[in-house]
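Q: How would the structure tokens look for this protein?
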Amino acid sequence: MRLEGKGLIDRGQPVSFTFDGRSYMGFAGDTLASALLANDVRLVGRSFKYHRPRGILTAGSEEPNAMVEVLEGNQQTPNVRATVQEIFDGLAAQSQNRFPSLKFDLLGVNDLAAPFLSAGFYYKTFMWPRPFWEKLYEPLIRRAAGLGSLSGKHDEAQYEKAWAFCDLLVVGAGPTGLMAALTAAQAGADVILADEEARMGGRLVSDNIRVDGQPGADWVDGVLAELRAMPNVRLMTRTTVTGAYDDGTFGALERVGLHRAPAPHLPRECFWRIVAGQTVLAAGALERPLPFPDNDRPGIMLASAVRTYLHRYGVVPGQRVALIANNDAARATARDLMAAGVKVVAILDTRPDAGAAEDCPVYLNARITGTAGRLGLSQVRFRHAGGEATLEVDTLAVSGGWNPTVHLTCHLNGRPVWRDDIAAFVPAANAVPRLTPAGACNGSFSTTACLRDGITAAKAALAALGKTAPDVALPVAEDAAYTITPLWETEGVEGRQWLDFANDVTTKDVKLSAQENFRSVEHMKRYTTQGMAPDQGKNSNVAALAVLADATGRGIPETGTTTFRPPYHPVSFGALTG
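A: Here is the predicted structure in token form.
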């Protein structure tokens, strides 16, 4: 499934690894997810509640499905995202939450019992008879709880803790963060640029985007070279800023040795306390899925993830691809695939008035009514403005729009604000003192808008620091408007429409919560377990809120959001204690 001439991996450095005891080959620069897709491995896990087959959905740390256990001698690290774990020679990973095997999981029988295991069933089932709780119910629940498993042995790995201080902390190294860091660095400010990826650049290294007339990845390399040459700049890759605290203090988790073969002189992780005079939040945005019957099959992926695997890793996840979207931005996925020689069977646009001029069939006012292929997608059934049809496909790229990554702005009790024009929440003003959100995490979705926001946010930070901002030319890039017609549920169809893939929460579960009078968003969360999986609902929370709002006759702003708390990304106890 690897395409020649595509990707930013090092094809001159092959890497051998194992997954579920079977050996595979990848290349330096691959993640476990991209390497598995390159080897045509689509089934990677089982869901928590029903043990349904799960495939790779995303290409980042928000991944809800592709969570594996990594084995290192006595170490057994659960719930590692395959989309973040870089491969190295000797990497041993295994799937989790299945018995006896991934393809044949006995607990898949839970899916057949789904009518009896609806949301909140545990509150009603384990009440009687009372003596059964201690002897039967609690032991069964404890055995079933959790996704990954621990070895039961002592953690013998090394961890580190460290402190850093700067004038300006920039969180995220996409176009917004790079421009903010460059502007502040040229003014002489001490700058820390932190990004959770191994390669900085954000969508510029994952999409087919040009900046100042050159490929986005080349422009990123030029900016990074300039930043590396400055003594007042620290670039921190593989570093996730996990929490915002008082007085400009932030927690950050750096993966030090997890991307390479174990080395006795390297810690696995380092937990940083960073104190910043000013902060620019350039954390980007996360694409969200669309709800339709059986939208959880392996082979159904986010459109942005398909582009990432294509452009960054040179991997195409399928040979016959369809796309369903409710916004213009996702059309780039189909165009990029066709330009790479991949068969795009059709574009399904949920909007009745969208354009239809593409080099493949386009169906307007489309709704998927069902899918087939338990261990891997094989068919999509849909209705559209002209009738009904069926597509034979092995991959479906999905885009329900984008959610700004507002999490850090909520860690000091800030509440995000709803914007109808982008159908998403954006940070509230002054939610965190001395922090300025910018770019996609603030609702600016074009490349030009992100670059401009980065410069503007840096200048505001410099003014607060008493420094003079330099004149920085705005790079030339695409500036297309972002248009979206939200779709929160497919009406008039049979079948379960999944919201939280990890915890098996459906649109029906959210409606049941409202029906049983758990109408508060925090009550709905606990009643359904929506957003309580290791991914913390990064892909699913907004859609669930919209379904709850519709079920209770309220608007989304009135329904509100659940409370985002640190950490943004799971942090091991070893790293916290150092």
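Residues 329 and 418 are 20 Å apart (CA to CA).

The chain has 14 helices and 30 strands.

Upvote if useful.
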